Amino acid sequence: MELLDSIEVIKNIGKTRADQLKKMGIETVEDLIEYYPRNYEDRTESVSIKEVEKGEVNTIKARVIVKPEGRKVRNMTIISVRVEDKSGGIDCIWFNQPYIKNQLILGQEYSFTGKVVEKFGRLQMESPDYEIIKEGSLNTGRIVPLYTVPKKMSQKVIRGCIKEAIDQTEFAFEEYLPSWIVKKHNLCSRDFAVRNIHFPENDYNFFKARKRLVFDELFILQMHLLELKGNVCGKKSNVKILEYDDGEIKSILGFKLTDAQERVLNEVKADFKNGYVMNRLIQGDVGSGKTAIAMICSYLAVKNGYQVVLMAPTDVLANQHFKGFSEVFEKLNIHCQLLTSGLKKKEKERAYEEIKSGNAQIVIGTHALIQEKVEYSNLGLVITDEQHRFGVRQREMLSEKGENPHTLVMTATPIPRTLALILYGDLDISIIDQLPPGRQKVNTYAVDRSHYPRLYKFIKNEVEKGRQIYIICPMIEENDKLELKDVLSYTEDLNRNIFPSLRVECVHGKMKNAQKQEIMESFAKGEIDVLVSTTVIEVGINVPNASFMLIENAERFGLSALHQLRGRVGRGSEKSYCVLISDAKSKVAKQRLGIMCKTNDGFVISEKDLEIRGPGDFFGTRQHGLPEMKIANLYKDIEILKEVQQTAISLYQKDKDMKKTENILLKEKIYDIFNTKIKKICL
Ligand code: ADP
Ligand code: MG
Q1: pLDDT digits (tens, 9 = 90+) for 117-145
Q2: Residue minimizing CA distance to atom 26 of ligand 1
């Protein structure tokens, strides 16, 4: 058997099972072996029947003392059999596995592992795994792996298949790490690792195997990121943005930068003059003042004779930035130009001309900015806002519009620091970890639906005081299957029955851009009291007069989404509130909403979220473009991650292009993983 053979070479895998496995991305013998257990059960110790623990998984060694029986209950076939050891007897039962009746032999001793429950005063073991007791059992009497299995495939089957694959491919897993790394980190061989991760004989072997596999997974990712970074960093740039007195713009902004802003600004200034292309990420909580930094950087670029372009993910945001920038830069006699797909044809044509001629010194817009038609004039600085909405490629396309311009990326999605290093491996990172003075905490409460009457009264009061309200729903339209609040019918209900005297409007993602724009503007002008919306308002909207946010079905949102949403209030001088409505009873849901009530710090929230949900969830591949981890746990494996990062950097420094013989296999492996298995990595 070869690693690259199709899984159908395995005895127990025919067409049906092969298809089931293929749906899970398992096509070759190698894929199957690299399909690691999601958990383990220690079945090394068995107990006597008298000693079984109710409600727990137990392993017993017992003899079948009556012929197994089958009966039908409604649509279910139930097989039951009485088994005994010296201490007593117990019933074992299975649901919908009629074949078991003919497999169990009267008088034979087996080892059974399963959950013991009490039914009608009798103990029974439910759907136990069983096996004749012998050396080398797979399913009992040992540490047993548990897999995420396709529907209709049992643990026993997949275990057997993996065992066969392992046995038939002895020593097939080549070592690809250079030997100094293996030695330095005291790693076991790769071959040992892939085998022992499935059927470890003891804890020691398991930990050895796991460490090796986690190390590999993180190491390969890290090397790939260094490569990405190497491609963009260390590139010479002719764009030199030299020190220029920024007192003028600072005085127009009208506030003193926080220490954190000042520090970040200095980091950017240092990048500007060092002769290399800057690729810097500015991470900062909502309201920490990233935009102000972007303005000062733009000012410096313009004063050095360069054009600046700022790309935002939505029309609404681009318009808002355009307004904010125009206000500041008009006073400095610097010309800003808007370019979005929402512009009329004539306006667009004019915009292209302004941009090409260099008349437009700061260009602000959406994806429209990267279209082929747009030609820039001496582009020196590219800024993207809220970067998790863009991919590396889009960023690159914008940069390619100039000759190695500097890049500044701003994001308000807080990510634990160590993880930011992985996710944004191709960027240098600056963090604004301080809010401007005088910011009030947004008081946050999690309540259930019984609070509506009080909440609605409170909202009315706030509006009477001249404040404005956001109400967020998880859905746009009604859906019979899900009992969730939706924007359309809720707006109607609010208008008709709940707040007939208030001005209630809605905005959502299915609306035309122009319409969204209009409503947002009218909300900003104070012509709307209550704005009902989906998360379209999540990104960067700034209406300081809005002081109250109600989030319906709050359990449906990720914590960072909730945090972003909440950042829309508390932007003015008024005390602001955020109420999370949820009827969810689960402990995790309660814990998560509880965190929102306790803290306003986005970094703390993201750490906690990661802790509760685990990184699998946290790093939805879709959201962050990070490949799904097969075994590493980005939260718990931080120590290994640190080892990995140091080693990856020193390898990279020694042999950047990985040309040395000892690095060739590793290079191939990295290439293999990132160019074939993981089709796209967009950071
Ligand atoms: P972000 O883009 O990080 O969400 P903004 O740059 O939009 O934050 O800043 C939010 C608000 O705070 C804006 O109204 C801005 O004018 C103001 N602001 C920014 N920096 C300061 C500061 N150092 N002192 C006072 N106000 C500030
Ligand atoms: Mg912002």
Answers
A1: 998 888 999 999 898 887 777 887 788 89
A2: 436
